[in-house]
Amino acid sequence: MIKICKSCGKEFEGKARQTYCSHECEYESMRTAERNHVCVNCGKEFIRPKRNRDSCQFCSRDCAFEYRDKIARHKRHIKRIKRCEECGKIFFIRGYATKYCSDDCRRVGSKRRIQAYMHDRYVNNFTSERKVCRNCGKEFWTEYKKSKVFCSGHCQDAYAREVKRLRKHRLDGKIIDSDITLMKLSVRDDGICRLCGLPVDWSDYIVDENGTFIAGKNYPSVDHIYPISRGGLHAWDNVQLAHFSCNSFKSDSIA
Question: What is the tens place of the pLDDT at every residue in 116-174?
Fold first, then answer.
């Protein structure tokens, strides 16, 4: 079928619906064809080629800039609008942390938050729970606190006495060198903490009004390399000088 190309005007043989002689002519027609558009800003109709793409939204640069400023003002306006968390009323915020539209709503909301906090605290800490006594192994229900671990005050006192007895006799049968003192150990280790490598401070302590001696973080202490609780011995080859804080941080781990 003989046809005439819409772009270049040449005759060509093509199919029934074919209107261009080649793809180049089709692309050129699509690029240069003028179409009617409506300005997004002012609503005015204008003619512009299809190749301009995004610029076909506005009839001029002034309309484009005016529309951009209008959108920016609208966004700033939207950002300053918020809904009250208490009454649901929409209001203009004075600051980004504003949650309530008035002082009355703020007082009611604060009271509601405090009540919710106290309710959660009661549910988490002051409800009954079945537990096993740490001393006698008897099952019991906690009366008011979930953190309770003893079925009675008698079991709590008995457990405390047993812990004190074990702590007092933790060195029974494990003392090999009874002549170990803190001063001798400091002389042997040159006053250097064997855990962090810094010197110890013998003056880092205080004595309170009751006469209680309180050691500071840098005060020297005797550290067992292999802890006594794990079967270590109180011997010269198993002790080292350490800061009071370093020794506490190490606890019963093996250095």
Answer: 888 777 766 666 778 899 889 899 888 766 678 888 889 999 999 888 887 777 777 78
Per-residue pLDDT tens for 187-206? 999 999 999 999 999 999 99
Cut 0.90: pTM above it: no
Q: What pLDDT, in 10s, does the model give residues 165-189?
A: 877 777 777 888 888 999 999 999 9
Please state which of the ranges 23-37, 143-157, 228-242 shows the lowest mean pLDDT. Answer: 23-37
Q: Measure the CA–CA gap between 224 and 174, rounded to whole angstroms.
A: 12
State both tokens at 105: 């709503």
| 3-class SS string, the chain | CEEECCCCCCEEECCCCCCCCCHHHHHHHHHHCEEEEECCCCCCEEEEEHHHHHHHHCCCHHHHHHHHHHHHHHHHHHHCEEECCCCCCEEECCCCCCCCCCHHHHHHHHHHHHHHHHHHHHHHHCCCCEEECCCCCCEEECCCCCCCCCCCHHHHHHHHHHHHHHHHCCCCCCECCCCCCHHHHHHHCCCECCCCCCECCCCCEEECCCCCEEECCCCEEEEECCCHHHCCCECHHHEEEEEHHHHHHHCCCCC
Structure-derived torsion over alpha carbons of residues 157, 161, 167, 170, reported in degrees to the nearest 10:
-140
The class level of CATH for 174-250 reads mainly alpha
CATH 1.10.30 boundaries in the chain: 174-250
